[in-house]
Amino acid sequence: MTTTQSALLTELEPVVESNLNRHLASAKPWNPHDYVPWSRGRDFAFLGGEDWVPEDSPLDDVAKAAMVVNLLTEDNLPSYHREIAVRFGPDGAWGQWVGQWTAEEARHSIAIRDYLIVTRGVDPVALEEGRMIHMKAGYDSGDKSMLEALAYVSFQELATRISHRNTGKASGCPLAEQLLTRVATDENLHMVFYRNLVDAAFDIAPNETMKAIAHEVIHFQMPGSAMPGFADNALVIAKAGIYDLRSHLDDVVRPGLRFWRVFERDDIDGEGARARDEMAAFLDLVEDRASHYERRRQERLAGAGAPAGG
Asked: Which residues bind Fe cation 2 (predicted)?
């Protein structure tokens, strides 16, 4: 008999409460303004200064693309809040978590935007235009069930952590790396919370949980995929090795599947087993595609005279 979503919410609430307490004990408060080099700031033309010109930016094109994608993704927080608030509800430990998560996530866009504006890292007018377009469009994950939403955010939080961390490394700026490492730490703690809930859901509804995980692995899309210029920027980011198909497969999907022992579980049957088989076949295809892209990248680097491992 399929466990209903409302019953799962109730049965998982003690797990939510314990993981919220663990999270609060682990998370360290931080202030976005501490990570911004305010002394490097100056007025724009509106206040008698000078407007941005490309020569102002200390970032290369790869770092610009990655930081803009990361920031605009973080900007859509109101939509993400709605997504989890609708599925988890406003009451009890679930509601407390939704509020805590939202408040912590809000720091990310504040800090990254302040850094980029103060250092004149990107065109602030284009950045604001992109923000307006992206936030007006919002984010809608469709009719995901509560379990599908939990599986999705387990993967997405880890993907965001890796993207921020690698962007910091690629920025060439120690301050940007420090800031994005701090943001990535938040994302990792959020991932652990959601990953633990999925693990607990397996004990309650193993087949339904397996189906949810398989669905999200097969249909996964980053939440910023609809932003202006995403496809072009994602290609730049992938070619630079900041976040590509290999990263997604080896650093995001497979660690989650190992943690949940997806392919070792013996409590799966029927639709759950079929979903697992479908996911396994899909992962084989992704592995082939990731290997193909890796070979092309190595050939491109070799043709450019770069070290093969660079």
From this structure: 105, 157, 187, 190
